[in-house]
UniProtKB/TrEMBL annotation:
A GO cellular-component term linked to this record: ATP-binding cassette (ABC) transporter complex
Molecular function per GO: transmembrane transporter activity
Bilayer disposition of the protein: Multi-pass membrane protein
Subcellular location: Cell inner membrane; Cell membrane
Family per similarity comment: Belongs to the binding-protein-dependent transport system permease family. HisMQ subfamily.
Description of how the protein assembles with itself and partners: The complex is composed of two ATP-binding proteins (GltL), two transmembrane proteins (GltJ and GltK) and a solute-binding protein (GltI).
CDD domains given in the database record: TM_PBP2 (cd06261)
Gene Ontology terms: biological process: amino acid transport
Residue ranges of the TM segments: 51-71, 83-102, 215-237
Keyword vocabulary terms for this entry: Amino-acid transport, Cell membrane, Membrane, Transmembrane, Transmembrane helix, Transport
The name this protein goes by in its record: Glutamate/aspartate import permease protein GltK
Length: 246
């Protein structure tokens, strides 16, 4: 049986094997209010995708910068990298999000809206994992590549930019895709600070309609479809950039 259909069978099982009377009218597109409710939920895709993409970009940039100290021959510099990675990975994403949203404006006397607070928190939280991904990818490149670049007169940063990183990016594409899926799922936490994403809109609709099971089930399907599409896109990109084996 195709595993992609298991979620649908599970939903049908839950719907049929219970005495609960499902109120799917709340999301029935054939009814005016049901259509309005569904469109209200679907509009949350915009903020969810936008905050995930921007956070992923910043997390990659920060992670790449954090990864370079791990490649140093100096134990002190490697220690700085390890300290950052361990601290950030040890802090729950929700706690970091609340600290950024409520703490940074107080600490620096600045105004910070919920969108950029979410971007900052998700970027920092993900950067530690990205640093490890980049470190592993760079170290996986054979030493001969470095030596060949140096023999051509390339400096350290030229070697990294022109020789090592392009190869490393191909190596780390699968974990990068996994981390983007992780950010998509973690983006649901920004609902607690008021960002009108998929989860926030579902919470608001539950308050108005008092049908949490139906609305949250639809929310699960929204995330499932989104993440399956992203996973398929990542696999397609992997095949396009894969290094031929012969």
């Amino acid at each position: 049986m195709n595993y992609k259909h298991l979620w649908l069978l599970s939903l049908l099982f839950l719907t049929g094997c219970s005495n609960y009377e499902w109120g799917w009218y709340v999301l029935d597109p054939r009814q005016e209010q049901g259509l309005a409710n569904m469109l209200f939920l679907l509009k949350g895709f915009s903020d969810t995708i936008k905050i995930s993409l921007i956070s992923m970009l910043f997390a990659m940039l920060i992670g790449l910068l954090v990864a370079f100290p791990a490649l140093s021959s100096s134990g002190l510099i490697r220690g700085v990298n390890r300290t950052y990675v361990e601290i950030i990975r040890s802090v729950p994403v929700l706690v970091l999000l609340l600290w950024v949203y409520y703490g940074l404006p107080t600490l620096f006397d600045v105004s910070l809206n919920h969108f950029w607070a979410g971007v900052i928190a998700l970027s920092i939280a993900e950067s530690a994992f990205m640093a490890e991904v980049f470190r592993g990818g760079i170290q996986a490149i054979r030493r001969g590549q470095h030596e060949a670049a140096h023999s051509l007169g390339l400096g350290y940063w030229q070697t990294m930019r022109l020789v090592i990183l392009p190869q490393a990016l191909r190596q780390i594409l699968p974990p990068l895709g996994n981390q983007f899926v992780y950010i998509l799922k973690m983006s649901s936490l920004v609902s607690v600070i008021g960002l009108s994403d998929l989860t926030r809109r579902a919470n608001e609709l539950v308050v108005n309609e008092y049908l949490p099971l139906e609305i949250y089930t639809f929310l699960v399907i929204e995330y499932l479809v989104l993440i399956l599409l992203v996973s398929q896109a990542v696999r397609w990109v992997e095949k396009r950039v894969a290094i031929p084996s012969h």
